[in-house]
Structure formats: C-alpha cells, structure tokens
Write a structure and sequence with these properties.
Elements lengths: L2 H13 L3 E5 L6 H8 L7 E8 L2 E8 L2 E3 L1 H8 L4 E3 L2 H8 L17 E4 L7 E8 L2 E6 H8 L2 E3 L2 E3 L1
Parallel strand pairs: 3-6, 6-9
Antiparallel strand pairs: 1-8, 2-3, 2-5, 4-10, 7-8
C-alpha cells in the first residue's frame, strides 16, 4: 500500500469512521475513475491544490464539477490564484496529479470543501494512488478533513 494511502487509512481508522478500500485499474481522470470503480461520477470527490499568493490551499469538490476560480479568489482574499505545478504537488503531498486524497490536513494545508459534498451520501476518491480509492460517507469526509465548508464549485 502506498505511503499516502496508508496515512489516509490510519487517519480514517483513528477517526472511527466506516470506509471501504477499492483497488482498481489505474485511473487518471475523474471520469476514468468512476468507470473503473463502477460508481457514478457524482459520487466522486476530487482534490486540487491551489496557490493563492504565497500559500497553498487544498480544495475538495465533487468530481463532476469544476473549481470556480473567481469564487476561490474571493474566499481566499487574493487576486492571484493558480493550480500547484506537478513538482509542487509531489513536494507537498507525495502524490501525482489525480491521486491526491481529500485530506489536506495530512499535508499541513488548510482545506476548503465545496458544500455539495455535504449532500453526497457516499463519496469515493483516490487515496494517494491512481489505482486505490476509498468510499465513505460524505458527512464523515467533511468532519475528518477539518475543512471549511463553502461554495466554490461550478458546473463543468
């Protein structure tokens, strides 16, 4: 089990939440992941790391939506916002793009969660690997992440 995946499972066990580990063919996009997992795209959660001025922020949103950069800039109080580069992502999380789990607290990052995740009964996400996912309750994801719930996702 990859190191980040193990850290995620330890975090969830320590929090006392129910979850299921799913091993599957490698998937690099949300659409591919839903297909190989046999789940609806709307159940997926994707994690993005953005750089706002001189700080990084972990943003988690439903897989079938996109991050609204204007909304994020407003929430973060910045005019400059960009996605972390592949190199920055690897240095911060130890994960390749598309494999980052939704727990920025594992990496010392502040977490923003789109409010739609609160209404998703079962959420499925990559857990540090393109071939390992975790399924768990959406409300547990919100609680364990320690993030701030807000609105920043828009239709894709």
């Amino acid at each position: 089990m990859p190191a980040v995946t193990e850290r995620v499972t330890i975090l969830l066990r320590d929090a006392g939440v129910a979850f299921e580990v799913l091993e599957h063919a490698p998937a690099r996009t949300s659409e591919e992941a839903a297909r190989v997992r046999g789940t609806a795209l709307e159940q997926g959660a994707k994690a993005l790391v953005v750089r706002a001025d001189d700080r990084f922020v972990h943003c988690v949103l439903p897989a079938h939506r996109r991050a609204d950069s204007a909304a994020l800039r407003g929430l973060l109080g910045t005019r400059r916002l960009r996605f972390a580069t592949r190199e920055e992502l690897l240095a911060i999380t130890g994960c390749a793009p598309g494999a980052v789990p939704p727990f920025g607290n594992l990496f010392g990052l502040p977490v923003l969660l789109d409010e739609a995740l609160c209404r998703t009964e079962v959420v499925v996400f990559n857990a540090g690997s393109h071939s390992v996912s975790i399924a768990m309750r959406g409300d547990d994801l919100v609680r364990v992440s320690g993030g701030v719930v807000c609105r920043f996702a828009a239709p894709a």
